[in-house]
What does this fold into?
Amino acid sequence: MTRRQATKRYMAMILIELLMDQKATKLTVATFLKTANLSRTTFYNHFPTGMCGLFRWTLEQQIIQKVDESIVSGDWESGCHEVVQFITRYRMFCLNLYYLADYPERRRFFEQVMKQIIHKALRHYNTRHNS
It folds into this structure.
């Protein structure tokens, strides 16, 4: 894992922790930076779009990573189960993100994620089937 990836994962972990205790609308960049012990420059170098970029990256990594691992292992169903478990375990975080985004943005996000999951699963099974 690169240093950049490690820093982003660290920021995601802090974000999840913060949003398990408070509403996203009350979370400021300043509060996040203080808790994460990061500079504003570091934050915006990793997420030029600010908190929205961090929110999206965190959720994408949590969902897509789990499904990718499951597809590669040949068990996409367990990846879907992992996603449901993540939502259950971090329901306040997920609800915060859900209510923070407007409906068209949520719809685009979930459509994009589902397309990625379906494409990856079909490619993987096609490759295995044709081997």
